[in-house]
């Protein structure tokens, strides 16, 4: 069994906790328990920074897995597992959010990226070029709106629809590519691994959260929605 990086797990755990904090605020606004303006300033940037960090860590982990000799079947299996989870999320959010359901969110992105990133792993310069192309495409497609939704996963935003947790390939695949390139550049320059100090209690807690990030992600949303619904009844 390959030893995991406790540092990366702790970073992922910190991002997961930040995501939970944002979703708690989102649910509070949704049920009229808070008047936070979620679509401007800090509260607009906050979830996007969390998503960028989370997706970048995923790209790093993909490159690390490839450097240890993992073949395409490993990445295809990961894509299939995450794809099933993504479909379940879409199905569960449809009756709750209607047309704003999670059509192509972070789990959808990570599922597809598991196979799309494969040709770039171990080729950091190509990954950087692919990432920059996604950023340019995302900027170019950020303003126009289209009268069809079937290509919105690419970044062609549909007119009149505002899906929740929307992370299309352009520009979000860029962070997968940049994360994988960073790992490959660092791996190429690494001579000998340095001994690490024993992690503190906080790091261990964050790392444990990061190791089970998918379970935490799936569990926290229904819990928050349930708590928000109960509080909206109890609180005048």
Bulk shape: globular
Radius of gyration over C-alpha positions, nearest whole angstrom: 19 Å
- Low-confidence region ranges: none
The number of distinct β-strands equals 0
Fold and architecture overview:
The protein has helices at 6-30, 41-67, 72-97, 106-116, 124-140, 169-189, 201-211, 213-234. With 236 residues, it is mainly α. The protein folds into two domains: 1-38 and 200-236, no CATH class; 70-186, no CATH class. Helix 1 runs parallel beside helix 8, helix 2 packs parallel to helix 4 and helix 5 (124-140) packs antiparallel against helix 6. The longest helix is centred in the first third of the chain and has 27 residues, at 41-67. 31% of the residues are buried.
Protein traits:
globular; mainly alpha; 2 domains; 68% helix
Summarize the structure.
The protein is an all-alpha fold. Helices cover 68% and strands 0% of the residues. It has 2 domains: 1-38 and 200-236, no CATH class; 70-186, no CATH class.
How would the blueprint of this fold be written?
Blueprint: H1 6-30, H2 41-67, H3 72-97, H4 106-116, H5 124-140, H6 169-189, H7 201-211, H8 213-234
Helix pairs in contact: 1-2, 1-7, 1-8, 2-4, 2-6, 3-4, 5-6
């Amino acid at each position: 069994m390959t030893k995991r990086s406790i540092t990366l797990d702790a970073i992922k755990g910190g991002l997961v906790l930040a995501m939970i904090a944002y979703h708690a605020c989102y649910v509070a606004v949704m049920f009229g328990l808070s008047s936070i303006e979620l679509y401007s300033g800090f509260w607009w940037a906050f979830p996007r920074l969390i998503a960028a960090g989370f997706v970048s860590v995923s790209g790093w982990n993909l490159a690390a897995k490839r450097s240890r000799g993992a073949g395409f079947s490993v990445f295809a299996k990961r894509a299939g597992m995450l794809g099933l989870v993504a479909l379940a999320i879409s199905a569960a959010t449809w009756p709750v959010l209607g047309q704003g359901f999670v059509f192509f969110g972070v789990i959808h992105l990570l599922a597809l990226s598991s196979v799309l990133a494969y040709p770039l792993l171990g080729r950091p310069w190509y990954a950087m070029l692919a990432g920059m192309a996604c950023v340019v495409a995302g900027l170019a497609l950020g303003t126009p709106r289209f009268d069809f939704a079937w290509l919105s996963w690419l970044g062609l935003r549909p007119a009149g629809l505002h899906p929740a947790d929307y992370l299309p390939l352009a520009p979000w695949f860029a962070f997968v590519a940049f994360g994988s390139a960073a790992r490959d550049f660092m791996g190429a320059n690494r001579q000998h691994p340095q001994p690490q100090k024993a992690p503190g209690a906080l790091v261990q807690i964050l790392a444990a959260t990061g190791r089970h990030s998918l379970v935490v992600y799936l569990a926290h949303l229904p819990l928050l929605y349930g708590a928000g619904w109960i509080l909206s009844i109890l609180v005048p």
